[in-house]
């Protein structure tokens, strides 16, 4: 889908949040795209729609920012500055309950071997003056969630 501006990116985040509210399981979402493509903005819009009232900061330096929204854990990871995937062990990523919590992971390729399985990918790419979002499922759980997203208007 074409995202013409920041408002369109926010609208996608709202749609994801509304689907997550109906979702009873955990979900691991990989956010792919160049620097500045809108990965953090999409996550921020999702968190705000889920009811987070505080600031949503990019986890570029902390690598992991945990939140509690809609009665469950939401973990935003940004692995751009990750030196070695093994560092995720020290950050407690394996302790995150991916069966029940929601994880949005930027630069997931840098955590290969230390992350839970990716259920869904959202690739954001520059196109004209906006962005192109490509959403794909990688697991049965991801495919089921995409069905929920498609039902949200």
Write structural notes for this entry.
The structure is a single chain. With 153 residues, the chain is an alpha/beta fold. The chain has a single domain, classed as Rossmann fold. The protein is built from four helices and seven strands; from the N terminus they run βαβαββαβββα. It has a seven-stranded mixed beta sheet with strand order 1-7-6-2-5-4-3. Strand 4 (72-78), helix 3 (87-90) and strand 5 (102-106) form a beta-alpha-beta unit. The radius of gyration is 14 Å and the shape is globular. The mean pLDDT is 91.
Average pLDDT, rounded to a whole number, is 91
CATH superfamily membership:
P-loop containing nucleotide triphosphate hydrolases
Count helical runs.
Answer: 4
Q: Distance between the terminal alpha carbons, to the nearest Å?
A: 14 Å
Q: What proportion of the residues is helical, as a percent range?
A: 25-40%
Overall tally of structural domains: 1
Oligomer: single chain
Please state the structural category. Answer: alpha/beta
Please describe the topology of this protein.
Blueprint: E1 2-3, H1 6-22, E2 27-33, H2 39-49, E3 64-69, E4 72-78, H3 87-90, E5 102-106, E6 120-127, E7 130-137, H4 140-151
Parallel strand pairs: 2-5, 2-6, 4-5
Antiparallel strand pairs: 1-7, 3-4, 6-7
Helix pairs in contact: 1-2, 1-4
Q: Which key terms come to mind for this protein?
A:
153 residues, alpha/beta, Rossmann fold, 29% helix
Question: What's this, in brief?
Answer:
Helix content is 29%, strand content 28%. The protein has 153 residues and is α/β, with parallel strands linked by helices. It has one domain (2-151): Rossmann fold, CATH 3.40.50.300.
């Amino acid at each position: 889908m074409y995202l013409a501006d920041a408002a369109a990116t926010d609208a996608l985040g709202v749609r994801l949040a509304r689907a997550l509210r109906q979702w009873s399981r955990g979900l691991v979402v990989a956010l792919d795209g160049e620097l500045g493509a809108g990965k953090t903005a999409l996550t921020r819009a999702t968190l705000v729609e889920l009811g987070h009232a505080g600031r949503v900061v990019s986890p570029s330096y902390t690598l992991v920012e945990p939140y509690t929204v809609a009665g469950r854990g939401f973990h935003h990871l940004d692995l751009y500055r990750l030196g070695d995937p093994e560092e995720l062990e020290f950050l407690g990523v394996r302790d995150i309950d991916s069966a029940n919590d929601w994880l949005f992971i930027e630069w997931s390729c840098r955590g290969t071997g230390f992350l839970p399985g990716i259920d869904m990918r959202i690739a954001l790419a520059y196109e004209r003056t906006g962005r192109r979002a490509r959403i794909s499922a990688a697991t049965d759980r991801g495919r089921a969630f995409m069905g929920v997203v498609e039902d949200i208007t």
